[in-house]
DNA sequence: CAACCTATATTGTCTGACATTCTTGCAATC
DNA sequence: GATTGCAAGAATGTCAGACAATATAGGTTG
């Protein structure tokens, strides 16, 4: 048996389960930005003890999905626009690079997956379910990132995208944004399918600038 | 009082203290890569209870400074060269961008700080203290990152650099590497001081490629 | 020497407790 | 009426102790 093949089965611990559920809840927008999370409530809702919950919260804090202020406890960060801008900028740096690399190296079978995820987004885009839109769009990116040949790029990107999920959900709800997003993503897909690195970078960059602009609009229109 | 000015005083909690001490210990190379950390031992050494320690370990796990396998506990990750390469690549992406931005926007007083940190590295480079070399070099980068105008770029970069501290320590010990590093860093400094964005990017990229090569050499020469 | 088994070490998780700190509502004061 | 001060309640930070489940090491047996 090859030693580098890690077959260790990982039993899901309570802690991991808790992190998973909380992360999903946060990304789904279940908690209002700025709202506080009460340990005792979460313990009751999740059915775990306080130590396990607190470990989970520390993990999420390190991921920057929540903030923990000493003696005040955990809360959902309320991202300012300048912070969101900074995240969008770094995301652009990473995602453009990933799209470019992906164009020259994605295997055909993964390209099919990418096509499928694009179709899934198309389906979601014609509905009004903005959560489904965000989720399917995230699938699309994650296939690109998974095939850029650099797992760290993927990991960092995932972390950043998670932190702006709130904005992404809001901007997808804008009139026409989903459709426009769809055509931009199709451009990215076609550049990658054609193996055209430069075009993939360009398309990716264009998409991100528009996404950022949409996020900003959605922010101004409400706050 | 302007609301964005956060005056909240943050009492250092046991958990934060513990994370800080452990992080420092890891970055200093106190633990062998691959070695396991025993909770009971760490509790005794740090003088904290097991719940507090475990919270700290979860934070470090999320930072990727340690790994925690269910039922086996925490250990120091043994980075493979391919993982290290991936980190160096993303680091290059970020650091080159930061150096470029820094060149056009660093305030003069921060430029002086940068100069001072370069001098500190020069001092360390002529010694044989490779830990001091790594630390002063890290100061140099962190000033650049702190003045690139994007705090997220800074944050992500810091996280990545922390993960390869082991390699950086090793490669600094290579014959002549510190001196060569010094001249590369001086180039970066001078490009930034001249406000030449393109030159800063080039110098930064050159420096990183050499650092990566040195890390690879130091790895091959031992394992 | 290999396989098995047992004892020990270690982790995962919970309960319960208590001091400290924050929040909130109300009373007192200006 | 607004502000200050205070007290009760709520929430967090931290610890001690316990126990089951799992992993590791060492010895035994074939």
In N-to-C order, the SSE pattern of chain A is HHHEEHHHHHHH
Question: What is the beta-strand fraction of chain A?
Answer: under 5%
Give the beta-strand count of chain A: 2
Question: CATH topology of the largest domain in chain A, what is it called?
Answer: Four Helix Bundle (Hemerythrin (Met), subunit A)
- Mean of residue pLDDT of chain A? 93
* Major protein interface: A-B, 35 and 35 residues
Q: If helices are DSSP runs of H or I spanning 4 or more residues, what is the number of helices of chain A?
A: 10
Report the biggest beta sheet of chain A as strand number plus sense, adding barrel if it closes: 2 strands, antiparallel
**Highest CATH level, the class of the largest domain in chain A:** Mainly Alpha
The CATH homologous superfamily of the largest domain in chain A is termed GntR ligand-binding domain-like
Q: From the helix content, strand content and strand pairing of chain A, which structural class follows?
A: mainly alpha
Kindly report the oligomeric state of this protein: homodimer
Question: How many angstroms does the end-to-end distance of chain A come to?
Answer: 58 Å
Q: What CATH architecture of the largest domain in chain A would you give?
A: Up-down Bundle
**Structural domain count of chain A:** 2
The strand order across the widest sheet of chain A is 1-2
- Helical amount of chain A: over 70%
Rg of chain A is: 19 Å
Shape of chain A: globular
Q: What's this, in brief?
A:
With 223 residues, chain A is an all-alpha fold. The first copy, chain A, is built from ten helices and two strands; from the N terminus they run H-H-H-E-E-H-H-H-H-H-H-H. In chain A, strands 1-2 form a two-stranded antiparallel sheet.
């Amino acid at each position: 048996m090859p030693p580098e093949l890690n077959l260790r089965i990982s039993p899901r611990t309570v802690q991991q389960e808790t992190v998973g559920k909380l992360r999903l809840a946060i990304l789904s927008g279940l908690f209002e930005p700025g709202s506080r999370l009460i340990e005792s409530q979460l313990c009751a809702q999740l059915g775990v003890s306080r130590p396990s919950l607190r470990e989970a919260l520390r993990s999420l804090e390190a991921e920057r999905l929540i903030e923990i202020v000493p003696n005040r406890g955990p809360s959902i960060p309320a991202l300012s626009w300048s912070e969101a801008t900074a995240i969008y900028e770094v995301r652009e740096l990473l995602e453009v690079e990933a799209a470019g690399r992906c164009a020259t190296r994605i295997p055909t079978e993964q390209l099919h997956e990418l096509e499928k995820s694009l179709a899934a987004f198309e389906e979601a885009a014609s509905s009004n379910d903005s959560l489904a839109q965000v989720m399917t769009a995230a699938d699309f990116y994650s296939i690109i990132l998974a095939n850029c040949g650099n797992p760290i790029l993927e990991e960092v990107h995932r972390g950043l995208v998670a932190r702006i999920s709130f904005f992404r959900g809001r901007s997808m709800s804008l009139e026409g944004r989903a459709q426009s997003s769809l055509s931009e993503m199709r451009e990215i897909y076609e550049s990658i399918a054609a193996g055209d690195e430069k075009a993939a970078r360009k398309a990716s960059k264009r998409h991100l600038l528009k996404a950022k602009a949409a996020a900003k609009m959605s922010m101004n229109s409400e706050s």
